[in-house]
Each structure stands twice: as C-alpha cells, then as structure tokens.
UniProtKB/TrEMBL annotation:
<dbReference type="InterPro" id="IPR011991">
    <property type="entry name" value="ArsR-like_HTH"/>
</dbReference>
<dbReference type="InterPro" id="IPR029063">
    <property type="entry name" value="SAM-dependent_MTases_sf"/>
</dbReference>
<dbReference type="Pfam" id="PF01022">
    <property type="entry name" value="HTH_5"/>
</dbReference>
<dbReference type="GO" id="GO:0003700">
    <property type="term" value="F:DNA-binding transcription factor activity"/>
</dbReference>
<dbReference type="InterPro" id="IPR036390">
    <property type="entry name" value="WH_DNA-bd_sf"/>
</dbReference>
<feature type="region of interest" description="Disordered">
    <location>
        <begin position="299"/>
        <end position="318"/>
    </location>
</feature>
<protein>
    <submittedName>
        <fullName>ArsR family transcriptional regulator</fullName>
    </submittedName>
</protein>
<feature type="domain" description="HTH arsR-type">
    <location>
        <begin position="1"/>
        <end position="90"/>
    </location>
</feature>
<dbReference type="InterPro" id="IPR036388">
    <property type="entry name" value="WH-like_DNA-bd_sf"/>
</dbReference>
<dbReference type="Pfam" id="PF13649">
    <property type="entry name" value="Methyltransf_25"/>
</dbReference>
<dbReference type="InterPro" id="IPR001845">
    <property type="entry name" value="HTH_ArsR_DNA-bd_dom"/>
</dbReference>
<dbReference type="InterPro" id="IPR041698">
    <property type="entry name" value="Methyltransf_25"/>
</dbReference>
<feature type="compositionally biased region" description="Pro residues">
    <location>
        <begin position="300"/>
        <end position="318"/>
    </location>
</feature>
<keyword id="KW-0808">Transferase</keyword>
<dbReference type="GO" id="GO:0016740">
    <property type="term" value="F:transferase activity"/>
</dbReference>
Length: 318
C-alpha cells in the first residue's frame, strides 16, 4: 500500500508525468529530456532519479551517455496508470518535438555514415596502410590511363607502367606529371613478351587487364618471370558474366574468369598459394570483382647435409 501511495504521489507532478510518457516512447538521455520538456537539467535529473527509485524507469550507459527508458510493461499492475499518462492530451507538444528529435538522430546517423565512415576515407586508409610497406619495385600490367599507377607510385620505390595503347599511356604520363610523381617509367609493350629483366621486381599487379588478352597464361608467365623470389603478383579480375557487349565495345577477350581456374593458371606460372579475396557484388553493376594474390617461391633450401661417414683417408685407430 505504501508503495502505491508513493507512486501516486510521485506521479502527481505534471512534469514527471510528461517525462514518464516521453521515456515510454523512446530511450532518451538527460539532455534530450531537457530539450523536450524545457525545464532545467537539475530539475529533470531530480525527476528521473525519483522515477528510477520507484522502478518505473531504467538507466543504461551507452557511448558516454546515460539513457532512460520505461521499465514497466503491459503485464505490470501499474500499467493502467502508465496507460493513462500515455493517453493524456499532449498540451505541451512533447510528442511532436520527440518525433523531430528522433528524426534528427536518424539524419545524424545517415550523414555520419555518408561523410565519415570508411567508405569516405578508403583513400586515406589505403595510404596509411601502404606507408607501412617496405619500398617496393612494382610493375603495373595494362596501366591504361594510369588511375592505379599513380596510386601505386605514391608509396612504391619505382613503378613500371606498361600498356600497348600509346594514347592511354600519354594520358597516364600527363596525370603523373600533374601530380609530380617522378618514380614511374612508362613502357609501350605487349604484356605477352616484355623487354624487362627477370627476377628484379617485388610486385606485379594486373588490374582488369588479363581479360583483355587471349593468351592470359602467357601474361601470367611474364609476370611471374619478372618477380624476385618471394615477390608477389596481385590480379584483380571479374567473375564469369554474360555481358557479351564488352567484347566489341571494350575489347574484352574473356567474359570474366572462374577464380579456381585462374588460381590454377597462376600455379602453372610457378606462383605459390594463390589466395582469393572475393568482393561483394555492387548492386549497380553487372560485374563482380575478385582478387588473387600469389607468391614466387623463395629459392629452394639446400638439401640437408649427408650423415658423416668415416673418411677412408682418416688415420685408423690403433
Ligand atoms: C581495363 S584497362 C585497365 C586499366 C588499369 N589497370 C585500371 O585498373 O584502371 C586494360 C588495359 O590493358 C591494356 N592491354 C590490353 N591488352 C594488352 C596487351 N596485350 N599488352 C599491353 N596492354 C594491354 C589495354 O590497352 C588497357 O589500357
């Protein structure tokens, strides 16, 4: 009975009832409640403490804030009282302000994702992670207009950018010049037979260039030949697809690749442990990309020494 009297007494305050109704609609922190009921923070804190002591609301910590929500549900004996508070006329327009507040919360979340989440900072992350790499000698197979080349050149010791299309190379050269990148050598050549020394490169990248060449195994073999022992090849390719138009309009020779088939081709080119990283499908594109990385094996270890035998020339024990 005493508890009931206390509860009735506590709910006899109109501001407290308004607060109870608001936290019954949404989980709110103190500043939010203050902005909704328009009374001083000290007064709101006092009301919240009272409602918590009566076990009408609960308190939870999240992200440095304390949030309050209704603790009583429809099965509780006090529910009819809460129902009355919920259904009372909204003379102060609390519920309309609450709707606005919840909308602002939602907008802030969406905006935050748009502006600040990794999707907006991939380039920074890529540069930060690349700065951890040792200085590498890189070859960009089929560099096109050099979009990837210039990114590689930001952290590589040297990039050899190869393409057989002189117009694309001119554009790539111009972009590198504009960015002041001086560690790129542009080479007009056929990826199937390159005028480059064997075993002198740390990394060969093929970004969507393999599907342009009929004899893709020859290209992979050339890439493997250029690598130092322990050097890596990274291939970005498309999954098999049915977009026939890319043959005539873009000059594709392959409608994508089965990753397992390309893994086998990399092994056949002498690369070890080709490892697959699949990308999620971009709903707006009919193409799905994947990455394969492979390593040129280190020089084979020397065979273990044969067990020692007594030399025929060794002096015999007397
Ligand atoms: C789709 S583009 C890729 C551009 C760049 N790698 C990228 O990811 O942005 C393919 C490029 O490969 C080049 N290419 C195709 N076959 C080639 C070959 N046999 N030798 C040299 N370059 C070739 C094309 O000229 C084209 O610029």
């Amino acid at each position: 009975m005493l508890e009931l009297t206390e509860t009735f007494k506590a709910l006899g305050d109109p501001t407290r009832l308004r607060i109870l109704r608001l936290v019954g609609e949404a989980r709110l922190n103190v500043s939010e409640v203050v902005s909704l009921v328009g009374v001083a923070q000290s007064s709101v804190s006092h009301h919240l403490t009272k409602l918590k002591a009566l076990e009408l609301i609960r308190e939870e910590r999240q992200g440095g804030f304390t949030y309050y929500s209704l603790m009583v549900d429809e099965k509780a004996p006090l529910w009819p009282l809460i129902r009355l508070a919920k259904d009372a006329p909204d003379e102060h327009g609390d519920l309309a302000r609450l709707t606005e507040l919840l909308q602002r919360r939602e907008d802030a979340l969406t905006l935050n994702e748009k502006l600040l989440e990794p999707g907006q900072s991939w380039r920074l992350w890529a540069s930060a992670l690349a700065s951890l790499l040792p200085p590498l000698d890189v070859v960009d197979f089929g560099c096109g207009t050099g979009v990837l080349t210039v990114e590689l050149a930001r952290w590589a010791r040297h990039v050899t950018a190869i393409d057989h299309n002189p117009a694309a190379l001119d554009k790539a050269r111009a972009e590198a010049g504009r960015l002041g990148l001086r560690n790129i050598t542009f080479l007009e050549a056929d990826l199937k037979a390159l005028p480059l020394e064997s075993g002198a490169q740390d990394l060969v990248v093929l970004s969507q260039s393999l599907h342009h060449v009929g004899a893709s195994d020859r290209v992979l073999a050339e890439g493997a030949r250029l690598l130092r022992p322990g050097g890596r090849m990274v291939v970005l390719e498309l999954m098999p697809h049915d977009e026939q138009w890319v043959r005539s309009r873009l000059g594709h020779q392959h409608l994508g690749f089965e990753p397992a088939a390309l893994q086998n081709a990399m092994r056949a080119a002498g690369l070890e442990t080709p490892t697959l990283v699949a990308a999620p499908r971009d709903a707006a594109s009919p193409f799905k990309a994947f990455l394969l990385t492979g390593t040129r094996p280190l020089a084979p270890a020397l065979p273990p020494p044969a067990p020692l035998r007594p030399s025929p020339l060794a002096p015999r024990a007397p």
